[in-house]
Write a structure and sequence with these properties.
The structure holds two protein chains of two kinds. Chain A is mainly α. Chain A contains 16 helices and two strands. Chain A has a two-stranded antiparallel sheet with strand order 1-2. In chain A, helix 5 runs antiparallel to helix 14, helix 10 crosses helix 12 and helix 13 packs across helix 14. The longest helix of chain B is centred in the middle third of the chain and has 21 residues. Classes of the chains: A mainly alpha, B alpha/beta. Chains A and B meet through helix 1, helix 2, helix 9, helix 10 and helix 11 of A and helix 3, helix 4, helix 5, helix 6 and helix 8 of B. The structure holds adenosine-5'-diphosphate (ADP) and magnesium ion. The site of adenosine-5'-diphosphate (ADP) has 14 residues of chain B, from strand 2 and helix 2. Magnesium ion binds next to helix 2 of chain B.
């Protein structure tokens, strides 16, 4: 980010200041109790231990890749592709809402921008889908700049209202412009390419790869320097500023990152549907994506993925209940939120306190305690 | 550990001026919180700002750190004009602070809180984080090591991987200081760091303040605990109703009738007693009524 290092030192290259600390040593109080409290139990219950395991993610990907070999019905492929695209939207919105704490009620706008940019360029101008991607990213960033630029300077309540309006404006604009096909939308959107496979299965596998990478990227972003800045801003903007973090830029980065995720998910959606029209991007979408994030656990990648799978597949599983299914769906969500307001799989703050102290030669209290 | 005598002998007032506040005025509607305050801080100095509740101490801090825009006046830090600049920019120039009411990132780990302080020095971009480049691993490792060093420095006990809001109050205060120190500030502003601490914790704080001063950092301290203030300060600025009423060494402040007056009203007999209290005699802890502290904290950020 912007912040030029006025003190000139980096953690890798300890400044005189840090060396002075080392020379002067730790407080006597510190070494007595330092890190003594054991982190204790790993993870807690068996379910959380399984879901929290790093291999679990790979297992999920393996299952996703293998699905067409198990059940290749058009229906199974369709709802699975839908679910994957929904996961991508949810991890994208999670950057904005979960990591950074910005309430975005019009996230479907970026989804629409991506789908329309890709759809129009590939049908009207006959471009291959891959060639449209840079323009999708540009369009999403421009959308993010237009909305985020003015509103992110204000308190976050304004953002919620402005984004709510933005979501509707994008949909209504698409409905009224000629080059977006008006109410009919865009149709005949091509595939990613000919892979010599059934086209829906080929699309499915492309979606698996893209979404898998998106989930990984959003998770890793959340744990790096920028991801920490997002969380600082979410927790306390003033305190973040007091640490030299330009909170406006940090919020902006979150908003634009979310926009790019949404835009790219829109490309997948356009290809998967082959036809898009304004009602595909109504407020319900924005609400459902937000629901997936909140239900799964804000700021938690596994949680948000689980939330997205539930929100997208549960109505399908409830098909037997006919007209009652959306009522049951709603009631189930309310019940979950009452009993687990923090989400199904909330973000785990705990980290190993001794990380990075291993290299020290002196025995640490907790090592002795073990 | 530096003894008080040693720290007194090395006079920082000979050092160049680091912070120069002149004519600082802040008004809220009709209320003048700070009215024409001028003072300076020298490099490496330990300066205390004292005064009754509502005197404008916190407001002055908020102006220096950019959280309030001064109505009038100028603030220069390390040779640059920082009046009305963005807090992040002022912090990046080397000013770190703590808040009168703890302002930690409650739901984040203790280590993450301290990493916030070194955030602007961590050399890593978003691509490094996504691709887990060697630079990412190196910078994360270095940040963790350094965060642990600062926590050792302030004497933080307890689980450093756990959410900071679960720590006892005194520990949280230490973490907040560690976070500010991790900014490697040229000047550290502490707003009532002893409020709510017990006797033992105050003793540890005194020791910590001396060690911070030993790093060469200038420390500006707002504090009501006169025992602590008299012990650690090289110079004291006294505020009342937003105006400076005295500026001098602890000895001069102790003897200043205007200070006694401001603190105690005009009653002479009581003034005698309170003068003793300011001088740091055994009664020093008596007025540290925790409920009064809490009430005074209410109104501040
Ligand atoms: N944000 C604010 N809005 C309105 N009045 C304020 C604000 N901040 C401080 N004040 C007022 O300014 C005066 C000085 O307050 P403060 O700086 O907190 O004093 P101190 O820290 O010395 O106790 C008080 O009268 C307080 O009510
Ligand atoms: Mg105050």
């Amino acid at each position: 980010m912007s912040d030029e290092p006025l003190r000139g030192s980096t953690p890798e290259d300890p400044s005189g200041f840090v060396r002075a600390v080392d020379e002067r040593g730790a407080a006597t109080v510190g070494t007595v109790g330092g890190g003594l409290t054991p982190t204790g139990r790993k993870g807690g219950n068996p379910v959380s231990r399984v879901v929290g395991h790093p291999l679990f993610g790979w297992l999920v990907i393996a299952v996703a890749v293998a699905l067409p070999f198990v059940n290749s019905s058009a229906y199974a492929i369709r709802i699975s592709t839908d679910a994957l695209i929904f996961i991508m939207l949810a991890v994208g919105l999670n950057v904005v809402v979960g990591y950074c704490g910005l309430l975005d009620l019009g996230y479907a706008a970026f989804f629409a921008i991506g789908a329309y940019t890709s759809g129009v360029l590939s049908t009207t101008f006959g471009w291959p889908i891959l060639a449209t991607i840079p323009f999708v990213v540009i369009a999403a960033v421009i959308g993010g700049l237009l909305i985020g630029g003015p509103t992110l300077r204000l308190r976050s309540d304004y953002l919620a209202i402005v984004t709510l309006g933005f979501g509707e404006i994008i949909r209504i604009t698409a409905n009224n412009l000629d080059f977006t096909g008006g109410p009919n939308g865009v149709f005949g959107i091509p595939d990613f390419g000919d892979f010599g496979l059934r086209s829906d299965i080929a699309t499915y596998w492309v979606v698996v790869v893209v979404v898998g990478l998106a989930v990984l990227a959003s998770s890793r972003l959340g744990r790096g320097r920028l991801g920490r800045a997002w969380r600082f801003v979410r927790e306390d903007e003033d305190a973040a500023e007091a640490m030299g973090i330009h909170t406006y830029k940090v919020k902006f980065a979150a908003y634009v990152t979310g926009a790019i995720f949404g835009g790219l998910a829109g490309v997948l959606f356009a290809v998967h549907q082959t036809a898009i029209s304004p009602p595909s991007f109504n407020f319900l979408w924005s609400a459902l994506i937000l629901m997936a994030v909140v239900l799964g656990g804000m700021g938690s990648t596994p949680g948000v993925v689980i939330g997205a799978i539930i929100i997208s597949l549960l109505p399908e599983l409830l098909r037997g209940a006919e007209n009652w299914r959306y009522l049951i769906f709603g009631v189930l969500l309310i019940v979950v939120m009452i009993f687990r307001p923090q989400g199904i799989w909330p973000h785990r703050v705990e980290e190993k306190p001794d990380r990075g102290r291993r290299r020290r030669s002196s025995p640490e209290p907790e090592e002795v305690a073990r | 550990m530096t003894s008080p005598a040693v720290s007194q002998a090395r006079s920082s007032t000979d050092e160049p001026v680091l912070l120069d506040v002149s004519g600082l005025t802040v008004t809220f509607g009709g209320v003048t919180a700070v009215g024409g305050l001028s003072f300076d801080v020298h490099e490496g100095e330990v300066l205390s700002v004292i005064g009754p509740n509502g005197a404008g101490k916190t407001s002055a801090f908020n102006c220096i750190t950019g959280f309030y825009k001064p109505t009038a006046g100028r603030i220069r830090f390390a040779g640059a004009d920082i009046t009305g600049k963005r807090p992040a920019l002022i912090a990046a120039r080397g000013v770190a602070r703590t808040f009168q009411n703890l302002r930690l990132f409650g739901e984040l780990s203790v280590l993450d809180n301290v990493r916030a302080g070194m955030h602007v020095r961590i050399r890593q971009n978003a691509f490094d984080a996504v691709l887990h480049t060697p630079r990412y691993r190196r910078s994360e490792q270095a940040a963790t090591d350094e965060a642990n060093r600062w926590l050792d420095f302030v004497g933080a006990a307890g689980n450093r991987g756990a959410e900071v809001r679960n720590l006892p109050y005194g520990e949280q205060r230490r973490v907040e200081i560690a976070r500010a120190l991790a900014r490697e500030p040229k000047m550290l502003l502490l707003d009532e760091p002893a409020a709510g601490l017990n006797h033992g914790e105050k003793a540890a704080l005194l020791d910590l303040l001396r060690r911070i001063s030993g790093l060469g950092t200038a420390v500006v301290l707002i504090e009501h605990d006169m025992g602590l203030v008299m012990e650690v300060s090289e110079r004291i600025v006294v505020l009342n109703f937003g105006k400076e009423i005295a500026d001098g060494t602890p000895e001069q402040i102790r003897a200043d009738p205007a200070v006694i007056e401001a603190y105690l009203g005009s009653d002479d007999a009581e003034a005698e007693q309170e003068a003793e209290r300011i001088a740091g005699s055994s009664g020093a802890q008596a007025h540290e009524d925790p409920t009064a502290d809490a009430a005074s904290q209410e109104e501040d950020r």
